[in-house]
Amino acid sequence: MTSQDAMPIAEPFELPCGLKISNRIVKAAMEESLGSGDNQPNEYIYRLYDRWAKGSYGLLLTGNVQVDERYPGLMTDLMISSKEKTDIEKWKRYADASQSHGTPTIVQINHAGRQSPMGKRPFRQPPIAPSPIPMSMGDSFIARALQRIVMPEPKEMTVAQIEDVVQRFADTAEIMAKAGFAGVEIHGSHGYLVSSFLSPKSNKRTDDYGSTPKARMKFLFEIIDAIRAVVPRTFAVGVKLNSSDFSAGGLTEDEARDQFRWIDEHGGIDFIEISGGTYESPAMAGTEYIPRSERTRKREAYFLEFAAKVRNTTTIPLIVTGGFRTRKGMNDAVRSNACDFVGIARPTCLQFNLPEILLDKTLADEHARAIQYEIRGTQLFNLIPINAVGSGVTTLWHNWQMHRVAIDNCEPDPSLTVHGKILSTLLKLLKKSTPSILMIFCVIFISIFIKRVFL
Ligand SMILES: Cc1cc2nc3c(=O)[nH]c(=O)nc-3n(C[C@H](O)[C@H](O)[C@H](O)COP(=O)(O)O)c2cc1C
Known about the structure:
Layout: E1 13-14, E2 20-21, E3 25-27, H1 43-53, E4 59-61, E5 65-66, E6 78-79, H2 88-98, E7 105-110, E8 128-129, H3 141-150, E9 155-156, H4 159-179, E10 183-188, H5 193-198, H6 218-228, E11 236-242, H7 253-266, E12 271-275, H8 304-310, E13 318-321, H9 327-335, E14 341-344, H10 354-358, H11 379-382, H12 389-406, H13 418-454
Parallel strand pairs: 3-4, 3-14, 4-7, 5-6, 5-7, 7-10, 8-9, 10-11, 11-12, 12-13, 13-14
Antiparallel strand pairs: 1-2
């Protein structure tokens, strides 16, 4: 039987909270880089999600929304400053746009922790983290110099600060429930704050929040409990977790497996999304970013083997994200019972209706897949000896594709080159600033003229 005859990814699923999901294809979280000014949802966000809403996904996960505007991953993230200052109408419009065709949308909520280079906080005020251990940008001289400026040593969080962040996660979840979203996903992977509490490399605390592997979970458990206390029982609460940090001294698969078991015992979670890596070692972006020594057999989905191992330690529904491109790969993953859902991120910026292709039974397996594309112009950036620069340029390229749809109101363009885009942006900037440059020349010219003739 071919995979188009039996289609596990087309089957509906119900989360423990009762949320009904029509198929197993999840659009994974991608920071949209569309926030500015008040960093609230805007027309661009509505237009972007209107496209995904029409794409026949089972579930949409939004890009990460920051629970504290002082510590975002990027200044272009959507952010919450406080419950009181939030314009709920803007979030309601976001929920309506993304769910206009019946696909439930879950908002990913995050605190960037030690990976927050800047935010709405005083200049040079460092980020906060479980322990004062900076994120390494690499061993080269240039990486270490840049790290001092961009990712300085974070300040160890006091217990009062921990309680404040827990409250902010709960407040943000409450806002999203009121706005009409179907749930929230706590971002517990990729090295951000929750993930850094879960990792022995970045959490060296000796108090209740870090003295043992189980104690490293306390922060996450408090967030789950605080959210559950303020949202309806039917509201989905999930978490994205690392299978491993792929970094020496970081979270290992063994400890990650214990974490899944402890979350199951703790309760309150409707799904776990499996990813891996941090910005020191961005395994979420592909096996080429995993140190050669740690790479396992090349396969379509990067973290599927881990999912199969962890499956027996938890009854919580699992999403695996990273690398899925073909219907066959997706169907095989769900059929093997390693996961319940497949998460897809990058291809969905080019094919907003990807599930329609994947679920089309008239298509043979070899055609039922995401388009293949090569991002031209990234080679030069891969040579820069700073961690995550290569994957960062790839991320940016996908942001540009989203912006073509959201801002320019046109279609994505897989042929877009990195150097071409940089050049056109520079030209645009130059064009915009031509009047100011002319004005400066005029002022200089007039002052010389006045000096020569009158003085
Ligand atoms: C533009 C872009 C933005 C991303 N932003 C987020 C994010 O906000 N939260 C998150 O958990 N992962 C984020 N990711 C990672 C993806 O969710 C996903 O884990 C990764 O791209 C691997 O999946 P894929 O191979 O299907 O692209 C982002 C990836 C890209 C390309």
